[in-house]
Specification:
Elements: H1 3-47, H2 49-58, E1 68-70, E2 73-78, H3 95-101, E3 108-114, E4 117-125, E5 133-139, H4 141-176, H5 178-193, H6 208-256, H7 266-293, E6 301-304, H8 305-319, E7 324-329, E8 333-336, H9 338-355, E9 361-366, E10 371-375, H10 408-418, E11 422-427, E12 432-437
């Protein structure tokens, strides 16, 4: 059963239930209203009985001892003395009727059978005649036709209302559910073709369906970007791995030919092979780190950013004596992964050292705002290369001849984004400043 059909059935059921409840209220109220109207007519007829009695006396006609018809009402007189016992109409007289005739008991209503029909009977004292009694009656079956017609009308109203509501709900459901149908087609298309495109979805409204369309479009767009990024990473990694692997294999083949290690060029070949293996190790390690810090489920804690920078500077001084490393470190507490922050700081410092000339200065600054900046006095970065500094495997023309994997600054950006921070590059008059901003501890 389709969702459209279920909505139509639900709408029809709701309307039918509402009409049924209304019918259960209207029908008893109508029956009660008719009964009250007839009771009023019986009381009125009983009140007019003295005038009718006077007309009988005026014509000197004998007073009938059986019920007579007066319009829709039957009327019967009981002259005094009223005694309990059988009568020629309705039900026998009782002690209660005697009490009503003597004025000791109040008038009353009852339902009786007479002549094969049910009657509503009103018993009251006959005015202006002491100890006399009058009964007025109305046949109840006259209301049956009206009430049966009302039953049929209410039943037809319930069925017709449910049918119209169901058809209307189905038509409206088709219009309301059209975006869901389009979304279903897009999902089926994505499932069948494995292409993460969600074009054609209308997300301009403010209802839940429009929100779902916008969320689905955003989700597929993010997944598509992630898939494309993975493909680019694999393609770039394979390209970067191909060169050192080819050089390594070539050098090993040369060692395997001729005199092997006894060849005078063997030490140079071994040195070159070891250098290529080192490049492979750096590249693989950087790829592992890049994948690691791409995981948002990293462990975070309060970290002294200035102390992390101080440790990174101390280690860098030992391996880069040709560069002057200087730190201006303000006390700063950030909420981050300590290992990731240290790796990012080390990458920034290593990048600055690589570009610094002998005797050049690298300034490492930590601000109380959670910003770690590293400035060098190198050649700087061309304006056309500036937007791509933190991209994976991106290397400017001037850097392609230098060692490195092209992933160091990409790892810095990955770490920043994993913590909700940012990175940026600021050109200087001499060199460049790279800034990593992290959220402060609360």
């Amino acid at each position: 059963m389709t969702l459209r059909t279920r909505v139509a059935l639900a709408g029809a059921a709701v309307v039918a239930a509402a009409l049924l409840i209304a019918s259960l209220v209207v029908y008893p109220a109508m029956a009660s209203g008719l009964g009250g109207q007839h009771d009023g007519e019986l009381v009125l007829a009983a009140g007019q009985a003295p005038q009718l009695l006077a007309s009988f006396k005026a014509t000197r006609a004998p007073l009938p001892d059986y019920p007579v018809s007066v319009g829709n009402t039957l009327l019967q007189f009981f002259p005094p003395p009223v005694q309990p016992g059988p009568t020629t109409g309705f039900v026998p007289l009782s002690d209660r009727d005697t009490g009503v005739a003597w004025g000791k008991l109040p008038s009353y209503f009852q339902e009786v059978s007479y002549g094969g029909a049910r009657y509503r009977v009103y018993t009251a004292p006959l005015g202006q005649v002491d100890q006399a009694l009058v009964r007025t009656a109305f046949p109840l079956d006259r209301d049956d036709d009206t009430l049966n017609s009302l039953k049929l009308l209410l039943g037809a109203l319930i069925l017709g209302g449910a049918l119209i509501a169901g058809m209307g709900a189905r038509l409206l459901a088709g219009r309301v559910l059209r975006p869901i149908g389009r979304l279903t087609e897009v999902v089926e298309h994505v499932t069948a073709t494995r292409t993460l495109t969600a074009g054609g979805l209308d997300g301009s409204g403010r209802d839940e369906v429009a929100r779902l369309a916008r969320s689905f479009t955003t989700m597929t767009g993010a997944l598509n970007e992630s898939l494309l990024a993975q493909r680019r990473l694999v393609a770039d990694a394979s390209h970067e791995l191909r060169t050192p692997l080819t050089s390594l294999i070539t050098n090993l083949e040369l060692l395997g030919e001729g005199r092997g290690t006894a060849d005078p060029q063997a030490p140079a070949l071994v040195h070159e092979a070891r250098a290529q293996a080192g490049e492979l190790r750096v590249l693989v390690n950087d790829l592992v780190e890049l994948a690691r810090y791409g995981d948002v489920q990293i462990h975070t804690e309060d970290v002294r950013l200035d102390l992390v920078a101080e440790r990174v500077i101390a280690r860098a001084r030992g391996r880069a004596p040709h560069v002057l490393l200087r730190g201006e470190l303000a006390e700063c507490l950030v909420h981050a992964d300590p290992d990731a922050v240290e790796r990012a700081a080390a990458n920034l410092v290593d990048n600055a050292i690589k570009w610094s000339p002998p005797g050049g200065e690298v300034l490492v600054e930590v601000a109380a705002t959670g910003a770690l900046s590293v400035a060098d006095q190198g050649p700087g970065i061309a304006a056309e290369d500036l937007p791509f500094v933190f991209d994976r495997f991106y290397r400017a023309k001037a850097a392609r001849s230098l060692p490195g994997s092209g992933l160091g600054l990409a790892i810095v950006r990955q770490i920043a984004e994993a913590h909700g921070g940012t990175v940026r590059a600021e050109p200087l008059a001499r060199g460049i400043r790279l800034v990593l901003s992290l959220p402060l501890a609360t």
